[in-house]
Amino acid sequence: MRLQNRVVFVTGGAKRIGSHLAVALAGRGANLIINYRYSNTDAQAVIRQIEGLGVQAIAVQGDVSNAADVSRMTRAALDRFGRIDVLINNAAVYFKTPFAQTSETDWDLTLDINLKGSFLCAQAVAPGMIARGEGKIINFADWAGTRPYREYLPYCVSKAGVIALTQALAQELAPAVQVNCIAPGPILLPEDMDEDDRERVVRATPLKRIGSPEDIVQTVLYLIEGTDFVTGGGVSGRRRSLHRVDGACPGTAICCVVAARPVLTYRPRTLRSGARSALHLTIPEQAHEEGFRRV
Q1: Which CATH homologous superfamily contains domain 7-241?
Q2: In b/e form, how buried is each residue of 201-213, taking b as 16+ CB within 10 angstroms?
Q3: Has this prediction a pTM greater than 0.85?
């Protein structure tokens, strides 16, 4: 899929990674729908940047965890552009929740925004994509979804749910719609994080640096423009790994990524129709030397 003249809906698109994505995709010729909940001033600033690139954009206010809001935002997008080609589920909340002090409100808020919101938005846009025979949905998980850490239990659980949601949606919406998720490592650290904590994050990261929004942009571009043969997959920037990314659909591709940048793609020489395992790959010795592991 090429982004020129396409329509992309970015939830949480007014700030941080969401705003970087929106502007970058506009630079590729896409028209944008920017969702925000409270950040109207930031959303309008992003709209001005996008329109300055010669494409169209609208900002839609709403709570992604509220079905009525999601329906209203989707209708506004369809009234303006007539279709939605790509959905990027980026909206999320992230705050410390020590286990003993985690309230029901903390749990519900985190799971509702991070997981339920991704489901509701996908459910709203998928019928149009299926009717047109094509579409892309990109969910944002987190490396915490597979390697949970202390004091953020609801967040870790919500992101693990996003990974499972991605795999399930890939099955539900195939073959017309490809559904994938990105699980970033450290990109934009919390603004209130002190220097000692930042240094600990860098030391724990294989590449010994903090990633940039551009790393995420390039991964999103790969999933939209770089391939139409990847679905049900996760791209993680925390550890070097090989990911099976076919969502158990007919045909298989293996995508190798490092620090949220896809670098190699392998296809098996032979694969039984509908096979879900027992893939036989020849992995170059260089890949083993760099610490990649077999699926």
Answers
A1: NAD(P)-binding Rossmann-like Domain (3.40.50.720)
A2: eeeebeeeeebeb
A3: no
